[in-house]
Write a structure and sequence with these properties.
With about 575 residues, this protein is an alpha/beta fold. It has one domain: Glycosidases (TIM Barrel). About 45% of the residues lie in helices and about 10% in strands. Strands 9-6-3-2-1-14-13-10 form an eight-stranded parallel sheet, covered by helices on one side. The longest helix has about 35 residues. The termini are close together.
Length: about 575
């Protein structure tokens, strides 16, 4: 197992699981593709593999829109007979014959088709599992899993069964009254006739079984990473879906009236609403006081489950633990507010406008409250998993007390070179705190190639101010990389790419983790905040993982040379 000591600088790679093309995947990345990714990383000298959330997600296919903060996403399960013991080759062949695997594996992800196929395969595996001897090894292993997860699994499986019962309509607030809480649902089940009781019981058993398979496969992935000396970094999303099993089970923990999001930022202007009002994510806010009453048991359970799978956890939108930007309307109502003035918007909401909660940083008292809240919440997280295993995504409108608080707690934050400034220049990477993660882009940002192309195009503008600003921004990046005299403007070339990677790896940050697109120098983008949801989260890396070594031999040869030069070679 890799020693996660910040004294030793490490390099890694970020790839969403869904974007991976495995040797035998069924249209979306899965645990076997992650194994291949770990093998690739180990072979290149990359010691960290970072992925996006793998919790059970909603119908919009965003990995940040969780149907459960505890359960794992079924589409990440590898559903081939050699991996899934309860699935026979005969069942696999019969089911896949009814689907166009060639079309599924080509181009972007077709979630509805991929989910339908995997669900059929898992259903077939579950039927076979039900026929096993009650004293068999697999049945005993399942029973042990169910016992270990009795504090969340029964209610999750019941919620997921009701979701299936209602034709996958996620809006649980629209379900009949007898389905709107675990207690009411169990009373309803007790009143059913034998046939309906059997049907809902089978659904509950199935969704419990799926979680057993998912956790078993993901823990095997972690074991594989341990053997290869690679640390696996997971993601803790800031919120959960309004229709999640968590809100359904613990409604007192959530403010379901307001919707979390982020204020307007220049870096995200994909649409007019985002530019004017900000990002409206739609997740309910947390009632921290209610969570405090049971010592944050929900958070502690969530972290324990994830740490059973991952070595490191990226805490999404760490700023939200201090204060969270809140909308007084749901995302589906955004269009109503697009063209309104603040006064007109307030007229529709009873006087409320988007703002930070608990408080704006408008008084010293409020600033102290926000700072103390974030500090206390992160201390709770650290109690569960220990220091240096959390990474705080501290990007966006960062209040001045956030980073000092995280530093005092020894929690690494993010360093995006083009956003870190000291005076009129970018902060030198040698001045980055060791407890930090350096990268040019997250899954929300354009890849390095696209960023440079945009600057180069603007450098050809007829408008002198636009041209000069673009050349200066390009120079700032070259200066950050130790090449201030490099001739500019220039298009993106292998030479430019090498300079930019060298600059990132040379930083003092403990972790340097570019996206896979920035290692290859390609332009695929995984998410554009504020853009049409159906087009996001569907991009896949063009080649299967097994072909990366040959497809990108020149780029990978350069990277393997840069790692030891920057002190990020194998330890």
């Amino acid at each position: 197992m890799l020693e996660l000591n910040p004294k030793n600088k490490l390099a890694g790679v970020l790839v969403p699981v869904f974007a991976l093309r495995g040797a035998d995947d069924l249209g979306v990345g899965d645990t076997e593709a992650v194994r291949e990714l770990i093998d690739f990383a180990a072979g290149q000298g990359l010691r960290v593999v970072q992925i996006l959330p793998v919790n059970a997600m909603g119908g919009d296919s965003s990995p940040y829109n969780l149907l459960s903060a505890m359960a794992l996403e079924p589409t990440t399960i590898a559903t081939r007979p050699k991996i899934l013991p309860d699935l026979t080759q005969k069942d696999f062949a019969a089911i896949t014959a009814r689907h166009d695997l060639t079309a599924l594996r080509a181009g972007p992800i077709q979630y509805s088709d991929a989910k339908a196929l995997k669900n059929e395969l898992l259903q077939a595996a579950h039927r076979r599992f039900q026929s096993r001897s009650p004293r068999g090894c697999r049945v005993l292993a399942w029973q042990a899993f169910a016992g270990q997860h009795a504090d969340w699994l029964p209610d999750y499986a019941l919620h997921r069964a009701l979701l299936s019962w209602h034709g996958d309509v996620e809006a649980s607030a629209d379900w009949p009254e007898e389905h709107r809480s675990p207690a009411a649902a169990r009373t309803w089940i007790a009143s059913l006739g034998s046939e309906e009781k059997r049907r809902i019981g089978d659904l509950i058993d199935f969704h419990s079984y799926v979680q057993w398979i998912a956790f078993t496969q993901w823990r095997a992935v972690r074991d594989h990473a341990d053997r290869e000396g690679v640390a696996l970094m997971g993601d803790v999303p800031v919120g959960v879906s309004l229709s999640s099993a968590d809100v359904w089970r613990n409604p007192d923990f959530f403010d379901t009236v307001h919707s979390s999001g982020a204020p307007p930022e220049k870096v995200f202007s994909a649409d007019l609403f985002t530019e004017k009002w900000g990002q409206n994510w739609g997740f309910p806010l947390y009632h921290w006081d209610a969570m405090r009453r049971d010592d944050y048991a929900w958070w502690r359970r969530r972290l324990r489950l994830l740490m059973g799978v991952f070595h490191l956890l990226r805490v999404d939108h760490a700023l939200g633990f201090f204060r969270i930007y809140s909308f007084p309307w749901r995302p589906e109502d955004d269009a109503k507010f697009l063209d309104l003035t603040p006064d007109e918007a307030a007229g529709l909401t009873g006087g409320e406008l988007p703002r930070f909660r608990d408080f704006e940083d408008d008084t010293e008292e409020h600033r102290v409250h926000n700072q103390r809240q974030g500090e206390q919440l992160f201390q709770i997280l650290l109690e569960e998993i220990g220091s240096h295993r959390l990474i705080a995504e501290d990007l966006g409108e960062v209040a001045p007390y956030v980073r000092p608080t995280l530093e005092a707690l020894e929690i690494p934050g993010f360093k995006i070179p083009q956003w870190e400034r000291r005076g009129d220049r970018l902060t030198s990477g040698s001045d980055y705190q060791r407890l930090s993660l350096a990268t040019y882009a997250t899954h929300d940002h354009p890849p390095l190639h696209t960023l440079w192309d945009d600057l180069f195009q603007k450098s050809q503008s007829d408008d002198q101010s636009t041209r000069d600003a673009a050349i200066h921004s390009s120079w700032e990046l070259m200066d950050f990389c130790g090449c201030p005299d490099h001739q500019l403007p220039q298009p993106f070339t292998p030479e430019i790419h090498e300079i930019l990677l060298r600059g990132l790896f040379a930083s003092n940050s403990w972790l340097a983790i570019p996206m896979i697109t920035d290692i290859f120098g390609t332009t695929e983008r995984f998410n554009v905040p504020g853009s049409e949801a159906g087009k996001n989260w569907t991009q896949r890396v063009e080649q299967p993982v097994a072909l990366w070594e040959n497809a990108w031999v020149d780029r990978l040869t350069v990277m393997r040379r840069l790692l030891p030069e920057s002190g990020r070679g194998r330890k």
